[in-house]
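Usage

Read records sequentially. Each one opens with the input sequence:
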Amino acid sequence: MGISITAAALVLVSAFLHAGWNLLGKSRTPSPAFFCIATLSVGLSLLPLNIWVLLQAKALPSAFWLLLVGSGFFQMVYMGSLALAYQRANMGLVYPIARALPVLLVAVATVLLGQRLPGLAWVGMLLVTVGCLLVPLVYFRQWHWRAYWRADCAWALVSALGTVGYSLADKGALMYLEVALEGAVTPLAMAYSYLGMQFFACGIWLLLGCLGKRGRAQLALGLGDLKLGALTGLMMGVTYGLVLLAMTMTENVSYVVALRQLSIPLGVGMGIWLLKEPAHRPQLLGVGLVCAGLIAVSLR
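and closes with the structure output:
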């Protein structure tokens, strides 16, 4: 069974929003302080829901809180590295790599853990790898290891590693939360309450990173544009919620995961159209290969 029109529409809106909040982060002077304001705004706005859900739960084990703190740390790594990558490179380079590599890394980890993948997934992984190698290039003949020995590529890779880290931590934490709740709240309420807790933890980690002189200056600058930071946080939260809602409307969630990859060409297109970033043929071909590869991996 495929995906319904309503679910597909929700995922498409989510893809636009995901690319959109990255565009907002890139359009200003991207900094960890900006994402600190964005994540804390989500955490604080969902605080009443968090309290209500936690009151419905039985005693949560210490492992849950450790995973939550760990998830916030890896989310901080993701957000901070993303900001540092955007300071050095165009959205058209950073966004596809940071979006695609986590899926590729999780697939590789699956293989290393002894699980088998079908042929279509292997084809998808190959396409993603080649696509990521093409994205940083300006000319095809530039294909040389020095083209990737750059700070922007390194920070995009660290951002992807942060995504893998918080995804694994979230999976474990949500299992503990689900057991403690015993069906007392809806899955959507549980997911959103956890989202609020995770974003609040991430915001605290980012805030700790802003205690230095430079960080305080960036934080003060971000507070001067508080509405934009809060809007970015709202877009982050709504993006995740729409995906969760779409997953409840379809039996095969791989269709939802595959459709989400449309955010990659959307993000690159926004950078070219709205930020006037250059469009290079290797980059555009790489983005196409990444998108096709991720869809193949998602439909395995």
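Summary fields computed downstream for this record:
- The chain has one domain: 5-298.
- The chain is about 80% helix and 0% strand.
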